[in-house]
Design goal:
Radius of gyration: 20 Å
Order of helices and strands: HHEEEEEEHEEHEEHEHEEHH
Number of helices: 8
Number of domains: 1
Strand order of the largest sheet: 8-13-11-12
Distance between the termini: 34 Å
CATH class: Alpha Beta
Largest sheet: 4 strands, mixed
Structural class: alpha+beta
Bound molecules: zinc ion
Length: 279
């Protein structure tokens, strides 16, 4: 078989795996509006994050996942500016959304409405070259085997950046690995008022080399479906402790073959279907 033929077949089998959202290569020209929920929605009138910004760089720009609601773009520009001016370092911005939001074929269930932003925990004092940005190396702040912080990869700058992000009024949640939340809890002063931002920091597996910022539904996005607010308080006590691995092994529950719940198929909001040519 000729190599070119194999490549063509491979190309078509891969592109058929892409969701209709991944096939849309440009945003709509409507005014910016987030539609639906974070994990089942889309983005009308997306804005692209400028490739060269103060205090940040976009990683893997070739994937073109740097589209967001205007408020997300402005948030990143604010955080970049603060990071550059106050800490003298730069952020690496990972995935935001596709040009029209919607579903990815892999990697994320959220990031569909232009309001979720991944920011790496690797801070760069020196800006990365194009090649380094195309294939960036992540840095993990957590020793996953021993469920503890990697002190060598965690600095006061990390604490400051995440605190700045959480204190931003547009931000509702920031997902981090539970070990990172514990570090933030330990580093903040004891004054209740000053610890309020910690309530927005939500423990979640997987977020050890990046943190995931979620913005609230923007004003003017009438069809944006908000999520319930996180529980009151700093979330540093029992709830956080419950994430720690148990030392006593628990026997796996017996499998019951009957009554298996089928996974619900999500129905995209109709306003979203209007944004794509291939439904
Ligand atoms: Zn994310």
């Amino acid at each position: 078989m000729r190599l070119s033929f194999v490549l063509v077949v491979l190309f078509y089998s891969f592109s058929s795996l892409a969701t209709p959202w991944e096939k849309e290569k440009s945003p709509t020209t409507n005014s910016t509006s987030s539609i639906g929920s974070y994990a089942n929605g889309c983005l009308d009138g997306a804005q692209a994050l400028p490739i060269n910004g103060v205090g940040y760089q976009i990683i893997r720009p070739q994937r073109e996942r740097y589209y967001g609601h205007t408020e997300a773009i402005q948030f990143i520009e604010r955080l970049g500016l603060t990071t550059s001016e106050q800490l003298g370092t730069n952020l690496l911005i990972g995935d935001i959304s596709l040009p029209r939001g919607g579903r990815f074929s892999s990697g994320h269930s959220s990031h569909q409405t232009g309001l979720d932003i991944d920011i790496w925990l690797r801070l760069t004092d020196k800006r990365l070259s194009e090649n380094e940005l195309a294939v960036p190396k992540p840095v993990s702040a957590v020793d996953l085997t021993n469920y503890k912080l990697r002190q060598s990869n965690w600095t006061d700058d990390h604490f400051q950046v995440i605190r700045h992000a959480a204190k931003d009024e547009k931000v509702v949640r920031i997902f981090v690995h539970p070990v990172i939340k514990q570090a933030l809890c330990d580093q903040e002063v004891s004054d209740v008022k000053q610890r309020e931002w910690l309530g927005k920091i939500r423990p979640w597996w997987g977020h050890h080399s990046h943190f995931h910022v979620r913005l609230k539904c923007p004003e003017g996005s009438a069809n944006c479906i908000p999520q319930a607010l996180p529980p009151k308080g700093d979330g540093c006590g029992e709830e956080l402790a419950s994430w720690a691995p148990k030392t006593i092994p628990v026997p796996p529950p017996k499998k019951v073959a009957t009554n298996k719940k089928k996974k619900k198929i999500k129905v995209m909001p109709s306003q979203c279907l209007a944004l794509i040519s291939n439904k």
